[in-house]
Amino acid sequence: MSTILSLLLLLAATHPPLPAAEGMTAADRQRLLAHLDMTESWLVSELNRLSSAQLGFKMTPESWSITQVVEHLAIAEPQYWQRVQDSMKQPPNTEKLPATDADILWYGIDRTKRTTTGEARVPTGKGDINGSLGVFRKLRGEMKEYAKATGDDLRSRKLLEGNMDVYQWFLMISTHSQRHILQIREIKAHPNYPGS
Hints:
By secondary structure, this protein is mostly helical. 59% of the residues lie in helices and 0% in strands.
């Protein structure tokens, strides 16, 4: 865990301080942007120079291939991003919410508890890696631009149908990607993973 925290601190340090905007602290903004940058760069790095056989390899007949993992991200992130936008239309919330930022960050690291995704986010198997990665990166750029410039108070809004504030959900979008990057690494570490 110390390696990941060190990387986050390094990424945060490489971003020059942004002007303070109403609603989000400079520290929250820097952490969010660093995490979004980190997970995007990790995903791109994991996919670099993979062959068709590597992209299509499945550890079991029921498990996802790397191509399907990336297709899932391309399907899920727009849905998660829409929840940010819909939740920000709600009035400010004064309720004490149980989720913590540490919970959200740990979600990205801890793959000991596996869950299945909702039907609307299951990969179809018809997506190609370049198309899915393009969708992911285009939306990631939009999210980073919003995170850089917004004056919205994300902490004061509760996530619709959730137990966290909107800032935490925004961070969770990135930690969700991190979980799937770890999944890609697990696929690559499988003894039957093709060499090229």
